[in-house]
Amino acid sequence: MRLAPASFAIALALAAQRGSALDKQGSAHGGNIGGESEGTNVSGSVMLGSALYNPTYAARPDNTGHALFRYAARADIDLIGSRLSIPIDVNMFTDRDQPGLGVFKPTEFDIIAGVTSTWPLGPGAIELGSRLEHDRPIDRGSFTQTYVDVRSRYLYSLARSFPDLARHALDVTGWVTLGAFAVNPTYAARPDNSGKALLRYALHTELSLLHDLVSVGIDGTMFTDRETSAFVPSELDLTPEVIVHLAPFELHLAYETDMPVDRSGLTQTYAYALGAWNFDFRREPGPLETRGQIHSP
User: Fold this and answer.
1) Which residues contact 68 (CB under 8 A, 6 or more apart)?
2) Which residue, among 269, 277, 279, 285, has the nearest Cα to 58 in the 3D structure?
3) Taking the domain 41-290, which CATH number applies?
C-alpha cells in the first residue's frame, strides 16, 4: 500500500507501496553486488516505524484514514546463494484516526513474495526476478490491490570502480530498475487509485560517509498507466532520506511524496522515522543497504 505512518518511533527490529506507489520491496540482498554464489542462508530485518508528519498518507488500500505506525519484517531466503533467492516482505499499517488504543491496531496487511537471481555484470551486478504483491484492509472495507511483476535491476557501487572513494571512507551505491506488471487486475497507476499500472521505472542512490556511519539517499519511482499511455509516467514517488548505521541497528528519517504527473489529483505526503534490527544466520549482518533497502511503506 502506498501509505504511511504521525509521531516518532524507532525500532528494535528490519531489512519501499501501497495502492500504486510505495515500493515496499527493494533489491533482494539490496545493493550487495558481491553476493554469495552458493550455499543456503536466511537474512533480513524487523522494523518499527512511525509517521512524524502525515497530512494525506492513507491507512488502507482504499485511501481511507491516516497511516501512523508501520510494523514490518523482511527475509531473503537463499537457496543457491544470491543466484537463487526468495525475498518475502510483510507490512502492516495502523490508522491514527482510530480512537484510543485503536491507533496500535493494524488496518492494512501487505505481503510481497517472489524469486530473484543476481549475477555479476561489468562493474556491478544485475538482478532479475518476479514478485507477487497483495495489499488488503484488515479492519474494514473490501478494496484490495494485487499484481505479479517481472523486473530487472542493475546494482552499482562507485567505490568498486574508484578506489579513491573507499580510501576516503566514501561510496555512492544504488540501483536502476525497469519492471513490468505482467498480471495486474487491481494495482493502481496513481495515488488516487485510478488507472492500472503497467511499467515501473526506478532509481535509488545513496552517498555513504564516515565508513557508512551516515548515508544520504534518494529514491524515485515512476509508474505508467496501461489504460492511457503505456510508456509515459502517470505517477512519481520521491523519497529523500538520512540513514544512521550502527550495526545491527539503523535509523532512517525520510520524507515521501507520491504525486500524479499526467493529470491533477490526490498527492500523498508524509515524513517518517524507521528503526531496524538486521539479522543474518550465516554471518554478522552488515549495514542494511548491503542487503536491502528499508522500503517505503
Assistant:
1) 5, 6, 7, 50, 51, 54, 59, 93, 94, 95, 96, 103
2) 269
3) 2.40.160.40
> Positive or negative CA dihedral for 55, 57, 62, 64?
negative
DSSP string across 140-173: S----EEEEEEEEEEEEEHHHH-HHHHHTT-EEE
The whole-model pTM stands at 0.84
202 to 6, 35, 270, 291: CA distances (angstroms): 27, 22, 20, 18
Of 173, 161, 155, which Cα lies nearest the Cα of 118? 155
Which residue matches cell numbers 542462508?
Answer: 41
Distance CA 123, CA 27 (A): 17
Residues forming a β-bridge with 83: none
Q: What is the pLDDT of residues 244-274, one digit of tens each?
A: 999 999 999 999 999 999 999 999 999 999 9
